[in-house]
Amino acid sequence: MNFSVMYPIACLVLTSTIQPALSDQLSLRTQPFNEELRASAQISGARFVGFATIAASLETGAPTVTAHVPASWAAADVCLRVMSADGRYQSENAYTLGSDWQGGSLDLDYPTRFAGDLAEFGQNLAVMLTAGLCEDPVAEATPVHWGGDATDMPLSIALNTARSDETYLFFPARSDLPDVLCTRSDADVQTAFDTLCPIPDNLLEPQLMEAVVVSFKNGELGSESALKINLAPQQ
């Protein structure tokens, strides 16, 4: 089943090349650091919750957070969001890129007070770095690598589908590719997100591409949702 013929084709834009991380190119703006760990879950209304690789084994200290940041984001505000599948942990923090940023890989300062709890969440975390302020609608995201060595883990989009029966991911600009059947999260509680859509290996090259998801529930086709994603080789 190929849904790509149903929706308009998005533009493709080249992104930047990888260069070493420079700590003075990305500054944390949110003071104090904005995060919360609740005793009970809260429902998330967001559709797109994460775009990241999550390390299979997470350290108990402050998590390592690295992102591929395109040159087109230079001098811009960006937002890093982190959410646990059960909705108990959530953070939203703003950063600003240097005006002379030429694109590449950057480490993000993440001074969490809940490092041990984040390690316990393990794979049941969604992480996403987006262009714009945290209060802006999510429109464009770039890959985040969370927790150190994630080279053997898939780059995936995390979704809140409201427990749909099936969800598919496709790329209108690449109608030659089969639709990706997304999988359900294995988290015991799936309040904030319930579905993971892996990015196909043959798309992992620098480019900006529209990703579209559509879900079925009780045999009915839901409306599509789209997100522009910056793709880059796995690190």
Summarize the topology.
Layout: E1 26-28, E2 35-37, E3 48-54, E4 65-69, E5 77-84, E6 89-97, E7 104-107, H1 115-121, E8 125-131, E9 140-142, E10 144-146, E11 156-159, E12 166-170, E13 180-181, E14 183-184, E15 195-198, E16 207-217, E17 220-221, E18 225-231
Parallel strand pairs: 3-10, 9-18
Antiparallel strand pairs: 1-6, 2-6, 3-11, 4-7, 4-10, 5-6, 5-8, 8-9, 11-15, 12-13, 12-16, 14-15, 16-17, 16-18
Report what the structure shows:
The protein is mostly beta strands and 235 residues long. Helices cover 3% and strands 38% of the residues. The chain is built from 1 helix and 18 strands. Strand 5 (77-84) and strand 6 form a beta hairpin. The chain is globular. Residues 2-22 have low confidence and may be disordered. This is DUF1007 family protein. It comes from Paracoccus albicereus.
Descriptive keywords:
DUF1007 family protein, 235 residues, 7-stranded mixed β-sheet, disordered N terminus, 3% helix, mainly beta, 11-stranded mixed β-sheet
